[in-house]
Amino acid sequence: MMEYQQQSNNNNNLNTKKMNEAIEENYAIKMIDEASDTITYIGLSELSNPVSIVKKIEIIGSVTSVLYASGLWENRATLTYK
């Protein structure tokens, strides 16, 4: 079971890395909000569009999570992140 879980985590990390690279290649940073010591929001958008993707970086203890949501920048605190 532990081996499967490790392999699953490795696959998730690889998929997240590929998604990060694809988003950052196609979108520009438009806004940054250091909401707290543990949460930072980064608004990304294509050059001609308003912010359409919000990247949330959250630090809990020694774990850093990078999650994304689609939506308006103004709603960044209440968006559903994946």
What this model shows, in words?
- This protein has 82 residues and is an alpha+beta fold.
- It has one domain (2-75).
- Helix content is 30%, strand content 35%.
- It is built from one helix and four strands; from the N terminus they run αββββ.
- Strands 1-2-3-4 form a four-stranded antiparallel sheet.
- It is globular, with a radius of gyration of 14 Å.
- 10% of the residues are buried.
- The model is unreliable at 1-11 (pLDDT under 50).
- The class by helix and strand makeup works out as alpha+beta
Oligomer: single chain
Shape: globular
Report the C-alpha radius of gyration, rounded: 14 Å
**Side-by-side strand order of the widest sheet:** 1-2-3-4
CA(first)-CA(last) distance = 25 Å
Q: Describe the largest sheet.
A: 4 strands, antiparallel
Helical residues, percent = 25-40%
Number of domains: 1
Order of helix and strand elements from N to C terminus: HEEEE
Which ranges are low-confidence, i.e. pLDDT below 50, for 5 or more consecutive residues?
1-11
Which percent band covers the strand fraction?
Answer: 35-45%
Beta strands, count = 4
Number of helices: 1
| Chain-averaged pLDDT | 79
State the gist of this model.
The protein has 82 residues and is of the alpha+beta class.
Fold blueprint:
Elements: H1 2-26, E1 28-33, E2 39-45, E3 53-60, E4 63-70
Antiparallel strand pairs: 1-2, 2-3, 3-4
Question: Key terms for this structure?
Answer:
globular; 82 residues; 1 helix; 4 strands; four-stranded antiparallel β-sheet; alpha+beta
